[in-house]
Automatic annotation (TrEMBL):
Keyword Phosphoprotein on entry: no
Domain DNA-directed RNA polymerase RpoA/D/Rpb3-type, first and last residues per copy: 246-452
Enzyme class at the top of the EC tree: transferase
Biological processes annotated in GO: DNA-templated transcription; translation
Similarity-based family: Belongs to the universal ribosomal protein uS11 family. Belongs to the RNA polymerase alpha chain family.
Protein name as annotated: Small ribosomal subunit protein uS11c
Keyword RNA-binding belongs to the record: yes
EC number annotated for this UniProt entry: 2.7.7.6
SUPFAM superfamilies: C-terminal domain of RNA polymerase alpha subunit, Insert subdomain of RNA polymerase alpha subunit, RBP11-like subunits of RNA polymerase, S13-like H2TH domain, Translational machinery components
GO-annotated molecular function: DNA binding; DNA-directed RNA polymerase activity; protein dimerization activity; rRNA binding; structural constituent of ribosome
PROSITE patterns referenced in this protein's UniProt entry, alphabetically: RIBOSOMAL_S11 (PS00054), RIBOSOMAL_S13_1 (PS00646), RIBOSOMAL_S13_2 (PS50159)
Amino acid sequence: MVRIAGIDLPKNKKVEIALTYIYGIGLPLAKQIVSNAKINSEKKIQDLDDKEIGNIRSIIEKHYQVEGDLRKFESLNIKRLIEIGSYRGKRHRLNLPVRGQRTRTNAKTLKKQKKNIYNGITHIKSTFNNTIVNITDINGNTIAWASAGQVGFKGAKKATPFAAQTTAEKAGKQALENGMRQTEIRINGPGSGRETAIRALQALGLKITTIKDITPIPHNGCRPPKRRRLQIECLESFNQNPTNQYGKFIIYPLNKGQGITLGNALRRIMLAELEGLAISSVRISGVNHEFTTVEGVREDVLDILLNLKQIIFKSDLDEPQFIRLKVSGPSIVTASDLELPTRLELVDPRQYIATIDNNTNLEMEMKIEKGKGYDLVNKKTGENLTESLKVDAVYMPIRKVMFHVKEQYNGESLLFEKLILEIITNGSITPKEAIIKASDIFIKMLEPLKEIAIESEEENKDNSQEEKKLHQVPIEELHLSVRAYNCLKRAQIFSVADLLDYSEEDLLEIKNFGYKSAEEVMQALQNYLGITLPKTKNKT
């Protein structure tokens, strides 16, 4: 190991490269040292003899300041520059003019002058998407300024109380550095960070003299504007093929938060509540189960069932329909070969079903039902599996629904939201019809809520307290005969609450308690408390 200037140099490195491991020696200086020592630049440390190593040591110790000595010198020089307030090193590192080159037009070269302002005014502008804190003197000159975006918050996080707190702390610290100790507060805007910003300024030690809300009154106190009518426009519509219809719609204006609420509701209703037609079962002549083949038909039964699932129907009928297929080969069988009843239409008559290779006859009967969503084979009951083959029925007329919300701003204030819906149907209904039907279902779902009578908590509390007091009435208050009273006592019935656990038949089962006593108790409950016991009720 070769050690020079207190550093162990790597053996496998060239001499001029290894010398750069010493603090204070760069590559140009290392090349100069190697040249002065008359050493081949291609030599490595491990190839040096003792004489060459000695020459390098003597050159470095005699002419250059390195490692510990250099570090000590630099440290003392930095302390000296700090004591005299020199900007030399700092300004060179920041690529700024050194002393003697500063100009009034270059703001970066001017040292910031601290102001000594005791009183000030803090303007807090808090909106639904940002918080801005501007601290000025009494003449309106800005002393400190900060915003939620400036301190690192993005998107919706700029409107949070924590963002307002961080913003106020940054502006408040700048104001304190300039000597401010008390301030007036002027608030503008309805955002959620108003109070948080005020508390943050108080926590810094600023004394708040007054708080004034200067948020403008909407519409200058006049009557509110008319409610904007909801509009819907079709932005784009085309048919990719008979079984894929695309539509893009925009709904506006919506208040904040209503876009995602309405979009999610319409999407779920369109996917889950809209009705459609599908084949639910198939009977094929000569076939008892789906894991077989039909003689003369190229496809097996499973492939035929899968092809039948792709057929899409249109109809306004609610009852199940039966359709038939009878084709002789050789032939290519498509949906157009089906024998359909009236008021039942095919969306794509070209839908492929099977291929018959010879003179075989293919006969089928299919059951078409209306439903929602999808119906799996293993969930279907009530039909004889030996007579027909079950099909996983997909009733949904909607293939896909996507939505997103756009916000319309006027400067920093949110005007309204726009809901953009993209709908792809299977062709049995159009995207426009899907929106109309989904909206109608949504309205009908909410309609019953208008007629629900909701009692207040106080009324429920009063009723429950009255009922509780009523049940705690002792049986002595019923003024029963001695015989009836003693029978009830022996049966551990001491209050009306205990008596309500019995029916008229249960009372007759009490020992020595006859029809007359039971009639007396029933009459007393009706006269004094308005309570009627049931004739038959098992004791709980």
